[in-house]
Amino acid sequence: xxxxxxxxxxxxxxxxxxxxxxxxxxxxxxxxxxxxxxxxxxxxxxxxxxxxxxxxxxxxxxxxxxxxxxxxxxxxxxxxxxxxxxxxxxxxxxxxxxxxxxxxxxxxxxxxxxxxxxxxxxx
Length: 123
Prior knowledge:
Elements: H1 26-32, H2 38-50, H3 55-69
Helix pairs in contact: 2-3
């Protein structure tokens, strides 16, 4: 632990400064935390340590906190911005209808007798 995390901290998921934090991959998280100030990042770090405690995530957050402590400024991006790594919801319904379906097919069980590539009995 360091000055930004405490073992007894229990933070509600809804209180996190990044929406859908648990679903962000590490690469996206490294970019998203750049928009947080030291307090927001400390909150996120405390949540991570008390829940999943993933070493690469904790290390990325600690490095960013160190940069903020040394005078780095949060980037201008919004932590509430849309996440491009999350796929949009699928459209409801199917565009298939009897009008768009192909002609009915019911080939015989032994194959299609009109297919010239199919071997025929000669006898």
